[in-house]
Every structure is written in C-alpha cells, then in structure tokens.
Amino acid sequence: MTYTLAELAARVGGEVEGDGAVRLERVRPLEDAGPGDVAFYSNRKYRHAFEVTKASAVIVGRDEKASPGRNLLRAGDAYLAFAKVSTLFHPPLQAMPEIAPEAAVHPTAKVHPSAQVMALACVGPGVEVGARTILHPGVVLEAGSRVGDDCVLYPNTVVREGCLVGNRCILQPGCVVGSDGFGFAFDMAGEEGSGPRHYKVPQSGIAVVEDDVELGANTCVDRATLGRTVVGRGAKVDNLVQIAHNVQVGPLCLLAGQTGIAGSTRLGMGVVCGGQVGIIGHLDIGDGAKFAAQSGVLGDVPPGEVYAGYPAEPVAEWRRNSVHARRLHELVKRVRQLERDLEKLKEGK
Amino acid sequence: MTYTLAELAARVGGEVEGDGAVRLERVRPLEDAGPGDVAFYSNRKYRHAFEVTKASAVIVGRDEKASPGRNLLRAGDAYLAFAKVSTLFHPPLQAMPEIAPEAAVHPTAKVHPSAQVMALACVGPGVEVGARTILHPGVVLEAGSRVGDDCVLYPNTVVREGCLVGNRCILQPGCVVGSDGFGFAFDMAGEEGSGPRHYKVPQSGIAVVEDDVELGANTCVDRATLGRTVVGRGAKVDNLVQIAHNVQVGPLCLLAGQTGIAGSTRLGMGVVCGGQVGIIGHLDIGDGAKFAAQSGVLGDVPPGEVYAGYPAEPVAEWRRNSVHARRLHELVKRVRQLERDLEKLKEGK
Amino acid sequence: MTYTLAELAARVGGEVEGDGAVRLERVRPLEDAGPGDVAFYSNRKYRHAFEVTKASAVIVGRDEKASPGRNLLRAGDAYLAFAKVSTLFHPPLQAMPEIAPEAAVHPTAKVHPSAQVMALACVGPGVEVGARTILHPGVVLEAGSRVGDDCVLYPNTVVREGCLVGNRCILQPGCVVGSDGFGFAFDMAGEEGSGPRHYKVPQSGIAVVEDDVELGANTCVDRATLGRTVVGRGAKVDNLVQIAHNVQVGPLCLLAGQTGIAGSTRLGMGVVCGGQVGIIGHLDIGDGAKFAAQSGVLGDVPPGEVYAGYPAEPVAEWRRNSVHARRLHELVKRVRQLERDLEKLKEGK
Questions:
Q1: Do C79 and C105 fall within a single domain?
Q2: Same domain, yes or no, for C236 and C333?
C-alpha cells in the first residue's frame, strides 16, 4: 500500500503543506527516513533530526515551525495523526480461521468459526472464543472462561477459570488474568494444633477485562476474593503491572510498567500512573488523577490531582519540598551558623 | 452444599447471634449479598455496606457493634472464620487422575497414578510428581525436578532442572522456580583478548520450595550459585516477586507483590514485606521483621522491628522525619526569618 | 571430571599455595564444603566460614590473609577465577540435535540440524534457528524471528514476529522479546464520535538482542514503535526487568532485577543499574554510569557518574543529604530552640 501525502492528510484530518502528490510507502523515524518515507516530529529533543531528515514528508503539529520547502502533514494533534497514518501502513493482522491440529481444544469449548487457534494453544472445557479472535501458541484458556470478538492473545497468556475478556482486547505475551489474589488469614493454632500457618482465603471471584483493554507482557490481574476484579473499558496497562484482587481500574486508565495496585483499591476513570507507581489497598482514587513515576500512594486522592513522591503528595508541594531536600546540607550549615552567631550575641551581652 | 448458620459457627469455632437455623448457600460481598448469602465485615471503611447489607448472615468479630435483628457469626478472628467458611463453600478442586494425551511426559518420569497432567503440560526425564498433584496446561517440569503431593501448578509455571517443590504447594500461572541467578565476573581481557566481557558464573545450585508454600503469578525464584535458594515452609509469595540466588526466605514469611530480595539475603521466620519492597544482598533480616510498602532495605534488621522508607529505618523515626520532610519549605522559611531577625539584632547593637 | 589444585590454577591463571596435588571433585560453598571440594572466599561477611571451612582448597584473592596450612588458589581476581573453575566442573549443556515429535515446527522454518527443539516448543513460519541452539519446552518463536547459534531459550520464552536474537544468548524462562511498546494517542472524539479512547500507536518496529546477551526470567523487551529496541552485545539483564520501546541498552550493561527503562532512553556502554531502578523516557545515560538500587532517574547522566535517590543525584550529595534527612526532627528542634533564644534576646533588650 502506498499513499500520497494528500491522501494521508484526508484520511487523518490534517492539512498538507508542500507537495501533496508526493508518494509515501513507509513510516520511518526521522533519523532513518529517506525518499518515500513519512516521519513524525513533536518532541523538541529531536529538533535537529527533524531539521536534517531526508523523509519525503513529516507529520507535525499545526503551529510547528519548519524550514520552507518541507512537505508537511499538519494536524491539531500530530501524535494522533501519526498513529492513524502508521495504522494505514501497518493494519492489524487478521485472523485466519483455523484450529491448528497441534492445538488442544476441549470438545465442549465454543470457538467461533472465524477465530484462529494456533498450534499448542489450549482451550479448556466450556470456554467461549469470539469472532475473529486470535489465540497464539501457548495461550491457555481455562474452564469456563470467555474471550470476546476481535481479540489478540499473544503467546503464553493465561486466562484462568471463569474469567472474562471483552471485545477488541489485546493481551501481550505471558500476561495472566485470574490468578489467585494474595489473601491469607493468620491461624495461630493451625490444623489440629500443628502450629501457626497462613490459612488460604479462597479466591472464588473472577477477573473481568472489559472491551478495548490492552494488558502488557507478564502483567498480572488477580481474580477477586469474592465478586470481581475489573479492568475497565479502554484501559491500557503496560508490562509487569500487578493488579490485585478486587481492584477496580476505571475506564481509560493508563498504567505504566511495573506499577502495582493493592487489593480493593478503586481507580476512577482516566487515572494515569507513571512507571513503578505503588498504590496501597482499599483506596479511592478520583477520576483523572495522575501519579509521577515511582510515587507511593498511601491515601485517597481527589479527582484531577497530580501527585508525586512517597508518601505521594500534590506535585507542587512535592517539588517545593524536593528542591529543599536536595539542599538539606546547606540548610544544616545555615542553622549551625545561626547557633554560633546567637552564641556570640549572648556572650557579647 | 448449603449450611445453616449454626452449622457454620460450629465448623469454624464461632458463636451465633440471631437465627442459627437460617440456611446459607453462598459467600458474597456485603454490597452484593442477598437472601441465602453469608458475608464478612471487619474493615471500618465498609461500615455503611455492613449496615445496609441484605445478607442473611454476616461474619464479624466478637466485639463488633451491630444493629439488633442481624444474624451474625461472631468469632475471635473474624477473618480466619470467614476464610474457613469460604473454604466450605469453595473446596479446592481435586485432581482427576489422568495424563492427557496431549501432554508430553518423558518415559523416565514418575508421575503418581493419582496425579493429573493436563494437555500440553511437559514432564521431563527423571521428574517425580506426587500424589493428587495437578499440572495445568503449559506447565514445564525440567529434568530431575521433583514436585510433592497435593500441589497445584497453574498454567505455564516452570520448574527448572533439579529443583524441588514440596507438598501442598500452589504455583500461580507463569511463576518460575530455578532460573539462573544473576552472577557475572567482569573479565577485562575476555576470551583470547577479545575485549571485556561479563563472564557467566555457573548457577549450579538449585531452588527449593518447601511444603505449604504459595508462589504468585510470574514470580521468580532463582537457583543458587552453589547450594540452595530456599523458600521456607508455609511462606506465601505474591505476584511478580524476585527472589535471587541463595536467598533464604524463612518459614511463614509473607512477601507482597513486586518485592525483590537480592542475592544471599536471609529472611528469618514470619518476615512481612509490603508491596514493592527491595532488600539488598547479603543481609540478615530477623524473625518477624516487617517492612512498609516500597521500603528500601540497605542493612541488617533485628527481629520484630517494623521498618519503612529509603534507606529503611524504624517506622517511628521514619514517620517523625517524614512529617518534617513534608513541611521542609516551612522550615526553610523559618531559618530565613531567623537569619533576618539576627541580622537586625546585630545591626541594632 | 576431577582436577588437581595445580591443574585448576593453571587453567584459570592463578597460583597455588599449599598442596597443588590435592584432587578436587566439586565446587561447594564454604560452609558445606568437605574433602574433595574447592570453595571460594572473598566477602568479609563470610570470614568465619572461611576460617573453619573443611574444603580441600579455597579460591582467594592474591593478598587475602589466610591461616597457614590451607590449600589456596590465589588469583588477581578471585571471583573470576572461581567462575572459571566452576565452569570446568559445570560445563554448559550441549544441544542434542533433535526436533521432538511433540514440537510444532512450521514447514517454512529453518532449524539448523545441530539445534535441539524440545517437546511443545513452537517454531513459526520463516523462523531461523542457528547451530547448536536449544529451545526448551513451551518456547514460542513467532513468524520471521531469528535466533542465532549457541543460544539457550529456557521454557516459555517468547520471541515475537520479526525480532532478532544473536549468538550465544541465554533467555531465562518466561522472558519476552518483542511485545508491543506502550504507545497510545489520546483521541477525544473517538471512532465516529463514540467518545474518548486511547488510540493504539502501531508498534511496527522490532526488538534486537545482540550477541552474548542474557535476559532474566519474565523480563520484557518491547519492540520499537518504529525502528529497533536494542539490547547491546554482552549486556546482562536480570529477572522481571522492563525495557520499553526504542530503548537502546549499550554493550556490557548490567541491569539488576525489577529495573525499568522507559521509552527511547539510551544507556551507554557498561551502565549498571541496581535492583528496582527506574529511568524515565528519552534520556541519555553516559557510558559506565551506575545507579544505586531503587534510584529514580529523571534526567540525563554524564558518563562514569554514580547516582542514587529520587530524583537521582550524584551519590556523594545523596549521602550527605540522606544523613541529614534522617536527623530532620533534630534540625527542627534546633530551629525551635533558636527561635526561643532569639525571642528571649529580643525581649531582654
């Protein structure tokens, strides 16, 4: 597939500056791009690469300054325009309807005839797999789980018994839906006086992944103790994230890599966590709250707030304190000087 | 299975308040429960849900206040009573003795006739699998490993060569026992002068998971460089935890999600780590020590202590300092004021 | 295989002290070692174990003090000597050329005849597997990926479509190469006005793992949005590490467990990250920079620097501030005392 710049602009709702007839064959990064390539520029860090790129066209924001003579696709949201252009050049793979002979599909499972089950995928008893969904090798769907339409489950993902995955979901390799939550009651006496033990609390609930969710590689979503753990519609979760039992992740949340949400915490709509954020259990995080990377959240957070630090606090306060914390040794010197001066003053009396 | 409230109380060692004859069919959360349901209440955050629940009975602590007319199961440890009641309604699945035709079991492996090996599980040469143990699809037991009786290994767990898993262990999906420890010796010269390299230190020891241990989804327990990495009897480990080579996790430890224990560190009995705790290598952590979430532990810790922060310190000190740290900008202002006042005083002389 | 102490010394470039003819059969830890065992000592914490060990010989540094009568193998770099000695006793397993009948190898894949594909491994269309490479059970190589010579891919590792793994690489169980990067453009309008959504940015690049790299268990290396994510020659990566899209990890880097590197960040040669380090996106980290465990890196770092803390700063400054931070409550008291004294002085006037 190739497109003219004008065609691309029309498709993504942008405007052409320069030659709309230039033909584009590929999307490439600024620094590697050459003739026939369309590139993308927005982050100032890469300004030089933008200025010297050999790309035939570049997608930029509406007000971005550019040398004359460049072919540009200008859009109000350049990143979104780039994403759409790139999707034109890289359409998602379509399912090739088939159950591979090396797959293990239980006779009671209902796999939609348009779905694709690759070799060494395993579909358990009573499982339902929707239309056009692709199960890669090593995927395991356990008894009674359901996966909707138009999903892609990459290799070695696991959906445990009774759990639900909606439509248009993408599960990256190795991610786990429905592992047992971490719940134990301390039992001092133990079984027949055998001594103390951690008594396992049955995790008899399920995990629900709603429509349009993406879960990252090796990310874990625990099933609920009772009821449901939910990853809400359109939420996107990065790699190695831990979502504990009974957590409610609201619609459109973004959770970056290695974030952990402890049990029963509720994230509102559109909450954003940077990498390695930790949120303790039983909290209520308001719609649109945002957390800087590595924040440690120990209390409820109102809607729309931006927090940072440990314990996490509003980012303006965190910054103010953080600046002083990095000059703490100077403050100590000033206090010492004050003590000396005051001593002299007293003696001078 | 259904039970009367009186039967449940008798089974778990609690007392009935209200109607002991009420028949219970399910365990459900307070907010979803209705007739026929038994629920559980302990965390004050959910007081309102307790007050308005439609559950036929609620499990509560001995001294919990409740409106008259409620059917209650009172117990000294309400959470433990709940766990036991829930187990009555959700007994663990039993192995259905079978080796699935799609499993790959090496002829030299010894699988107990009462064990269940599901489709696409792989049992290597010389492996031993105990009585009533269940291997889910995608489980890989490598050469010479041993798994005891009454274990459940969920999909895609891996036990590498020679490693040992005890009795009554539960391995959540994707967890790994016996990956190589992270050990390299810097070799400036390299092979035949090929330049610097990290020379791999053979990780020829094993990992041992003792009886009654649970390992979380995608958790990793590295094998020892020499000797053994040990996860002690009855320890419970959450998802995405890293246990490095030669670590000794004592009996009954609780390690919450995304915690990491570096090489050769020894945790005593009953150590508790909140989420995302990090403990550096070669430390000695005393019995019953506890760490707040995200603590960074850089030195030995005596038994029974509660630590927090980075570097981790006794929690009382951490709290005291943490309060001041969040008001650091005020302190800076006070020092500035003092400097000004003192200056005036000097000039006034 | 057994060796005399003199043979071992000759093989690893060390010197014998004591009886070079003593015959050694095994490598064992100091505390477990007995006759026929060679042990290793370097960390002062284990001095006592060194003094009382029953090992027939011990590998130590050139200047290490030792009681007379000990058989020692002295080397300039004792740890490297130990690593080499241990390799003599534990040579890496060799591939046993075979494609197991329970493996699923696509007819268009090119598997070198000297490679070993174990049961339930899956090799997709157009995949190339090099000489003497071993694919353990549950390994999935997706369409068009390539794995070089002399690699070991442990169970359940995944290499997604088009990604490249060099020669002599080791992939620990469950690690993932080529998962989609975490890239979404916020789309306020949504598809045909269906409301806001996160529009997926195609991750059409690849991930490249160069020669002599080791990736830890359940570690994730995302494919690039465009172009390549690269883990450079000889880099060693521990368990549960997140390497985001378009990251460049330089040659010989060492990344300890649970470290996360956000998108497009470039690590120079030989960068070292302690455990649970986080580095935000689009940064430039100089050659040989080092980060203490749990550092949070928010800005570029010059070559050779050692950083710690959050936000990470040069370790000397971090230490200086950290000491004061732990005595912050004392500083507050001193300031209060100053305020009182000054008040008195004013009143005294």
A1: no
A2: no
What residues in A contact C262, CB-CB < 8 Å?
256-257, 275, 293
Beta strands, E only, B100-238 = 104-105, 110-111, 116-117, 122-123, 128-129, 134-135, 140-141, 146-147, 152-153, 158-159, 164-165, 170-171, 176-179, 184-187, 197-200, 206-209, 214-215, 220-222, 228-231, 236-237
CA A326: distance to chain centroid? 32
Domain's final residue, options A61, A89, A117: A89
What is the number of structural domains in chain B? 3
Determine the Cα–Cα distance for residues C51 and C74; give it in Å rounded to an integer. 16
The H-assigned helical ranges of chain B are 5-12, 47-52, 78-89, 315-325, 328-348
Number of H helices, E strands in chain C: 5, 40
In angstroms, the CA B14 to CA B12 distance is 6
| Cβ–Cβ gap B202/C83 under 8 Å | yes
**What radius of gyration do chain A's Cα atoms show?**
27
Q: C-chain residues within 8 Å CB-CB of B179?
A: 154, 172-173, 216-217, 239
The per-type count for chain B, helices as H runs and strands as E runs, is 5, 40
Residues B214 and B167 in one domain: yes
pLDDT tens string B73-106: 999 999 999 999 999 999 999 999 999 999 999 9
A132 and A197 assigned to the same domain: yes
Residue B48, burial from CB neighbour count under 10 angstroms (0-12, 13-18, 19+): exposed
Q: What is the extent of the structural domain holding C185?
A: 98-317
Chain B nearest-CA distance from A270, in A, is 23
Angle, helices C328-348 vs C315-325, to 10°: value is: 60
Residues of B in contact with A135 (CB under 8 A): none
Is A339 part of a structural domain of the chain? no
pTM of the entire structure?
Answer: 0.97
ipTM for this prediction: 0.96
**CATH at C71:** 3.40.1390.10
| CA distance linking residue A18 with residue A22, whole number of Å | 9
Question: Which among C208, C261, C321 is the top mutation candidate for probing chain A, defined by the most A β-carbons within 10 Å of its own β-carbon?
Answer: C321
Residues B46 and B153 in one domain: no
The whole-angstrom distance between C196's CA and the closest CA on chain B is: 30
Beta bridge partners of B102: none
The reply to whether C192 and C70 lie within a common domain is: no
DSSP B74-120: EESSHHHHHHHHHHHHSPPPPP--EE-TTSEE-TT-EE-TT-EE-TT
In the annotation, is C245 catalytic? yes
Radius of gyration of chain B (CA): 27
Please choose, from the candidates B179, A258, B191, the residue with its C-alpha nearest in 3D space to the C-alpha of residue C215.
Answer: B179
List chain C residues with CB under 8 Å of B142: 136-137, 155
Do C236 and C304 lie in one domain? The reply is yes
Q: What is the pLDDT along chain A (349 residues), one digit of tens a residue?
A: 899 999 999 999 999 999 999 999 999 999 999 999 999 999 999 999 999 999 999 999 999 999 899 999 999 999 999 999 999 999 999 999 999 999 999 999 999 999 999 999 999 999 999 999 999 999 999 999 999 999 999 999 999 999 999 999 999 999 999 999 999 999 988 877 788 999 999 999 999 999 999 999 999 999 999 999 999 999 999 999 999 999 999 999 999 999 999 999 999 999 999 999 999 999 999 999 999 999 999 999 999 999 999 999 999 999 998 888 888 989 999 999 999 999 888 887 6
Which position among A106, A198, A245, A324 bears the catalytic label?
A245
What is the residue whose two structure tokens read 């030995």? B300
Measured in angstroms, the CA of C90 and the nearest CA of chain B are apart by 7
Same domain, C279 and C152: yes
C293/B227 Cβ within 8 A: no
